[in-house]
């Protein structure tokens, strides 16, 4: 797909990290970008920087997502590109014993469901609503109507201790990529997913330097954390390469996560 000033795009989680880098990359090609996020101050700042529009969106809420797409399309027209970066995580063991008093507890199911709702259901919600909109577009010269890029994680394949919910949610994103690509193939909409490794995002920046150094040392090569711009490079390749479809691609410096 050619990305230019006639292209409208939506990036969820676009106020920071991987999403912000992708929003900037799309805007650098001339695309009109709408940022979906709950971080209003940061989102407005990125939107102003790239000449886009910010939409305060909670991906777990139907009405909020509908309102976001309505605002984005009123400003830029129907999007041909959707990049899903909105997500979160937690770290809780399935069942555990207290080291102090020996009491036993299990993973609270509401905390498990919260991760699934944001990372998996939220991603699917945005895909379904965006794809329905893309179906209204005239196909381009090669028959293509749109491109969708999702964000999973290497935890989808080698989740660590405490990552049952996170790994399940990201594994779900990986698992639904090919079926959705097949659902949309006759309409000329491509769907791909990136599985990032350990990236230097705002969340990671909050960690102590010693922790970040240890994580970087665990990466086979290059021995550093990934940069958000590298995620954006792969996202742009998935968008612009018309033969890229139905794929789940690790972007991780060849790391395979240890149990802890």
H and E string:
EHEHEHEEEHEHHEHHHE
- Please, how many helices? 9
How many DSSP E strands? Answer: 9
Residue runs with pLDDT of under 50 for 5 or more positions: none
Net shape: globular
Structural class: alpha/beta
The overall pLDDT, averaged over residues, is 96
CATH class, anyone? Alpha Beta
Biggest sheet: strands side by side, in what order? 3-2-1-4-7-8-9
| Tally of discrete structural domains | 1
Task: Supply the CATH architecture.
Answer: 3-Layer(aba) Sandwich
> What is the CATH homologous superfamily assignment?
NAD(P)-binding Rossmann-like Domain
- CATH topology name, in short, is Rossmann fold
GO molecular function, one term: oxidoreductase activity
Keywords: Oxidoreductase
Pfam families: adh_short (PF00106)
Family: Belongs to the short-chain dehydrogenases/reductases (SDR) family.
Account of the 3D structure:
Belongs to the short-chain dehydrogenases/reductases (SDR) family. This is SDR family NAD(P)-dependent oxidoreductase. InterPro entries: NAD(P)-bd_dom_sf (IPR036291), Sc_DH/Rdtase_CS (IPR020904), SDR_fam (IPR002347). The protein has 260 residues and is an alpha/beta fold. It has a single domain (8-201, 227-251), classed as Rossmann fold, CATH 3.40.50.720. It is 44% helix and 17% strand. It is built from nine helices and nine strands. It has helices at residues 17-28, 40-50, 62-76, 109-134, 155-158, 164-184, 202-205, 209-217, 228-240, and strands at 8-12, 32-37, 53-56, 81-84, 95-97, 104-106, 146-151, 189-196, 248-251. Strand 2, helix 2 and strand 3 (53-56) form a beta-alpha-beta unit. Helix 3 packs parallel to helix 4 (109-134) and helix 4 runs parallel beside helix 6 (164-184). The longest helix has 26 residues, at 109-134. The chain is globular, with a radius of gyration of 18 Å. The relative contact order is 0.15.
């Amino acid at each position: 797909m050619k990305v230019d000033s006639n292209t409208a795009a939506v990036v969820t989680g676009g106020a920071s990290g991987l999403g912000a880098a992708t929003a900037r990359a799309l805007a650098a090609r001339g695309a009109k970008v709408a940022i979906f996020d709950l971080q209003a101050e940061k989102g407005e700042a990125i939107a102003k920087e790239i000449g886009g529009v910010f939409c305060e969106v909670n991906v777990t809420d139907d009405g909020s997502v509908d309102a976001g797409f309505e605002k984005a399309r009123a400003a830029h027209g129907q999007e041909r590109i959707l990049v899903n970066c909105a997500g979160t995580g937690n770290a809780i063991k399935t069942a555990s014993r207290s080291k102090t008093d020996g009491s036993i507890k299990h993973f609270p199911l509401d905390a498990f469901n919260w991760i699934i709702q944001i990372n998996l259901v939220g991603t699917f919600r945005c895909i379904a609503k965006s794809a329905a909109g893309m179906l209204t577009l005239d196909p381009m010269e090669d028959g293509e109507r749109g491109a969708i890029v999702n964000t999973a994680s290497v935890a989808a394949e080698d989740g660590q201790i405490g990552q049952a919910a996170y790994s399940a949610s990201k594994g779900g994103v990986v698992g639904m990529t090919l079926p959705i690509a097949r659902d949309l193939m006759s309409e000329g909409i491509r769907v791909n997913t990136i599985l990032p490794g350990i990236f230097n995002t705002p969340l990671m920046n909050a960690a102590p330097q010693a922790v970040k150094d240890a994580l970087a040392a665990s990466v086979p090569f290059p021995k550093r954390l990934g940069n958000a711009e590298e995620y954006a490079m792969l996202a742009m390749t998935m968008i612009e390469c018309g033969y890229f479809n139905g794929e789940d691609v690790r972007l991780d410096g060849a790391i395979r996560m240890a149990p802890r």
